[in-house]
């Protein structure tokens, strides 16, 4: 037997394996769990699942209640706001009782300027179904789309599917005139495709053995995949490759980027067999994005501009960059979108997102105003280049996801749709006024002020009695901007405060916020989070006995680190697909993502200082005999990004070194990094975690 049990809890066998680097020896007793196809590994994971199910059996009724509340509040038959591209309106429908969306289009009618809508989510008159995810998913436990890309002339649809969760997609082409799926399919592709101007050629991506997208291919529609041609291959293992068609449909962009360096190559969409031309050669540490706009390429870059600046260069003969928006420290320019007569820049300042508009022929840009002091805004689908109306999405912790059309000329906006929130178990309509959102600032160990966003029921006492969930991420410059959540209402209505810690390593306060939470400053991410947790207790929002921390992926690394750093600060920790054995993974260049990650974490293979630093915070390697809070780790067997054995090893070591705690591991045996597919499955997964959290807080 691979797994014994003590008092019902699985105990993994120990098989000591030595790792020796830079004079340091680490004994990894659970390295054998990396054998994904080993029957002993599968048996151990099954035993862990059985133990978790038994340990949470008393929460079954609560889980069902939470799932039912989410389902009850959700308008299950619904319709997205149609977006116009060419002669069609494109949209997504969902149907009550069906797990996946249905992608559709409807022809634009004479004189029609506003998107057609159906309040009840019913099919639009004249609808054409392009792809029904429920039909594709039949007979499969997992289903995900990788790409969904209609050719400029509207005739062809390129789409790709994954039925395992490992994010290796099979690419297919569908003739939208006949409904026929062509025989020229391509296995093992990555996200991202781009069409030539006439729709005769499709560009796509494949990955190397380390799951790094490294090749761009050219496929002629109607020919075998064996005839496809490599257009570009990136040999530097630090760099990923992407491909897309510009909104103007004039250029194919090949985006080549590492964590800190960029290079873009372009192919005229009207000459798809041409050689890719370099816009600007890569220079270490210089990042730039390219958007086509008339006779020029817009360049969003950080050359001498930490928080990025906007410039342009000739599209015919790229050369010097001419400034358009100068660098302004503290205002992070994040992306640029070009339309025929306008340029729209997405940015963030003082921790909040925003939109800036430049009009062709005018030297004065303007910013769009938004009503709430805590909010999140970003452009939505805007496929039409020749338009003066853009679409954006707006939300906050108390405002459901809202879709607006904004006229760039008149500066007027129209609310097209707000996410419906149906009455909950009390039968009362959803009322945003029943909830409050707040912004607090914690003081980190080094004196840095760290923002926290909170939401709670109106009138929640601030006397330390309320339970609280604190969420964090803090890596890759990813910002955890305020978002609305229907499942979260079930927690708020039970008196739980929900807080988001905007810690360093994220991008909430600009590029500096990111650089101060990576490489040899990574520990700032963890100490910031602990400072936020302590602040919530000190400010009376909660107590450590009722505070549960939650994070996923790199946020799962955060969860493991704070468990070691401040186990007394939390009543429980939920770690989803957690990166808790980072040093072992980053030492192995054969693993997916490792080499590309060295510019995020450092290279412990080559640098003894990086090795020692990572070893000092690795959750797995720093488990000690202390009283840990209860821990729930969630993972997926087919996860390519964070391998399942990291949390499996972590839980095993916790049980061995600190046996007095409560440690649960739940493994999805047929899913990937995002967990189970299908909206109902996702709701059930969320209900599982929420029930566990409420149990830890004493209100189950």
Q: Tell me the strand order in the biggest sheet.
A: 33-34-36-35-37-38-39-40
Q: Helicity level, as a percent range?
A: 10-25%
Q: How far from one another are the termini?
A: 36 Å
Q: Which regions contain 5 or more consecutive residues with pLDDT less than 50?
A: 1-6
CA-atom Rg in angstroms: 25 Å
Number of helical runs? 12
Sheet with most strands = 8 strands, mixed
Morphology call: globular
% residues in beta strands? 25-35%
Would you mind describing this structure in some detail?
With 700 residues, the chain is of the alpha+beta class. Helix content is 18%, strand content 34%. It has an eight-stranded mixed sheet with strand order 33-34-36-35-37-38-39-40, with helices on both faces. Strands 10-11-12-13-14-15-16 form a seven-stranded antiparallel sheet, with no helix packed on it. Strands 5, 6, 7, 8 and 9 form a five-stranded antiparallel sheet that branches. A hairpin with a 5-residue loop joins strand 31 and strand 32. It is globular, with a radius of gyration of 25 Å. The relative contact order is 0.10. The N terminus is likely disordered.
SSE topology sketch:
Blueprint: E1 3-6, E2 9-12, E3 17-21, E4 24-28, H1 39-55, H2 60-73, E5 78-79, E6 83-85, E7 88-94, E8 102-107, E9 128-132, H3 133-136, E10 144-150, E11 156-162, E12 169-175, E13 186-195, E14 201-207, E15 213-220, E16 229-233, E17 240-245, E18 251-257, E19 262-268, E20 277-280, E21 288-293, E22 296-301, E23 309-314, E24 322-325, E25 331-339, E26 342-349, E27 352-359, E28 366-367, E29 376-379, E30 389-395, E31 402-407, E32 413-418, E33 435-443, E34 449-457, E35 468-471, H4 486-492, E36 497-501, H5 511-515, H6 523-538, E37 547-552, H7 554-565, E38 572-576, H8 582-586, H9 594-601, H10 608-617, E39 630-636, H11 645-657, E40 663-668, H12 679-696
Parallel strand pairs: 35-36, 35-37, 37-38, 38-39, 39-40
Antiparallel strand pairs: 1-2, 3-4, 5-7, 6-7, 7-8, 8-9, 10-11, 11-12, 12-13, 13-14, 14-15, 15-16, 17-18, 18-19, 19-20, 21-22, 22-23, 23-24, 25-26, 26-27, 27-28, 29-30, 30-31, 31-32, 33-34, 34-36
Helix pairs in contact: 2-4, 2-12, 6-7
Organism: Micromonospora sonneratiae
Domain Peptidase S9 prolyl oligopeptidase catalytic: 483-694
Domain Peptidase S9A N-terminal: 10-418
């Amino acid at each position: 037997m691979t797994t014994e049990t003590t008092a019902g809890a699985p105990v993994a066998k120990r098989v000591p394996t030595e790792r020796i680097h830079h004079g340091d020896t680490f004994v990894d007793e659970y390295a054998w769990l990396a054998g994904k196809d080993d029957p002993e590994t599968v048996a151990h994971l099954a035993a862990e699942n059985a133990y978790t199910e038994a340990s949470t059996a008393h929460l079954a009724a609560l889980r069902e209640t939470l799932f039912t509340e989410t389902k009850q509040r959700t308008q299950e038959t619904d319709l997205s706001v149609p977006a116009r591209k060419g002669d069609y309106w494109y949209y997504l429908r969902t149907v009550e009782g069906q797990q996946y969306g249905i992608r559709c289009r409807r022809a634009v009618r004479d004189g029609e300027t506003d998107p057609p809508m159906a309040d009840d989510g019913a099919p639009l008159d004249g609808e054409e179904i392009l792809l029904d995810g429920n039909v594709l998913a039949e007979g499969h436990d997992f289903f995900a789309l990788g790409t969904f890309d209609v050719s400029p002339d509207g005739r062809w649809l390129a789409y790709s599917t994954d039925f395992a969760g490992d994010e290796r997609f099979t690419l297919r082409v569908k003739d939208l005139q006949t409904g026929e799926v062509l025989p020229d399919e391509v296995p093992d592709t990555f996200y991202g495709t781009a069409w030539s101007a006439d729709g005769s050629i499709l560009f796509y991506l494949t990955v190397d053995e380390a799951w790094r997208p490294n090749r761009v291919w050219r496929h002629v529609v109607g020919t075998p995949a064996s005839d496809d041609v490599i257009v570009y291959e990136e040999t530097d293992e630090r760099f990923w490759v992407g491909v897309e068609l510009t909104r103007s449909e004039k250029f194919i962009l090949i985006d080549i980027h590492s964590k800190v360096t960029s290079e873009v190559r372009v192919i005229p969409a009207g000459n798809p067999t041409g050689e890719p031309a370099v816009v600007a050669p890569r220079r270490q540490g210089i990042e730039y994005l390219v958007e086509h706009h008339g006779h020029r390429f817009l360049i969003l870059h950080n050359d001498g501009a930490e928080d990025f600046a906007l410039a342009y260069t000739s599209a015919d003969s790229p050369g010097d960059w001419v400034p358009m928006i100068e660098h302004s420290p503290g205002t992070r320019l994040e992306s640029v979108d070009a339309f025929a007569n306008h340029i729209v820049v997405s940015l963030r300042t003082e921790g909040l997102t925003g939109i800036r508009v430049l009009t062709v022929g005018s030297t004065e840009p303007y910013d769009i105003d938004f009503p709430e002091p805590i909010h999140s805004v970003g452009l939505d689908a805007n496929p039409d280049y020749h338009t003066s109306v853009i679409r954006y999405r707006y939300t906050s912790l108390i405002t459901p996801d809202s879709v607006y059309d904004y006229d760039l000329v008149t500066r007027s906006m129209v609310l097209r749709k707000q996410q419906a929130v149906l009455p909950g178990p009390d039968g009362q309509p959803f009322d945003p006024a029943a909830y409050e959102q707040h912004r607090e600032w914690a003081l980190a160990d080094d004196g840095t002020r760290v923002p926290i966003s909170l939401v709670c029921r109106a009138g929640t006492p601030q006397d330390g009695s309320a339970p609280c969930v604190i969420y964090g991420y803090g890596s890759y410059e990813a910002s955890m901007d305020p978002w609305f959540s229907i499942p979260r209402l079930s927690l708020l209505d039970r008196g739980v405060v929900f807080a988001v810690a905007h810690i360093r390593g994220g991008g909430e306060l600009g590029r500096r916020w990111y650089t101060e939470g990576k490489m040899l400053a990574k520990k700032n991410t963890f100490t910031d989070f602990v400072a936020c947790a302590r602040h919530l207790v000190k400010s009376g929002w909660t107590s450590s006995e009722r505070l549960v921390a939650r994070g996923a992926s790199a946020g799962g690394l955060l969860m493991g680190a704070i468990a070691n750093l401040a186990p007394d600060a939390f009543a429980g920790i939920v770690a989803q697909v957690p990166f808790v054995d980072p040093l072992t993974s980053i030492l192995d260049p054969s693993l997916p993502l490792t080499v590309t990650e060295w510019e995020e974490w450092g290279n412990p293979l080559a640098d003894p200082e990086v090795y020692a630093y990572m070893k000092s915070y690795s959750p797995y390697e720093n488990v000690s005999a202390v009283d840990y809070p209860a821990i729930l780790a969630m993972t997926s067997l087919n996860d390519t990004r964070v391998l399942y054995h990291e949390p499996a090893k972590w839980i095993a070591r916790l049980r061995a070194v600190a046996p007095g705690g409560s440690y649960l591991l739940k493994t999805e045996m047929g899913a990937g990094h995002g967990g189970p597919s299908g909206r109902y499955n996702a709701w059930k997964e969320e209900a599982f975690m929420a029930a566990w959290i409420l149990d830890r807080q004493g209100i189950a």
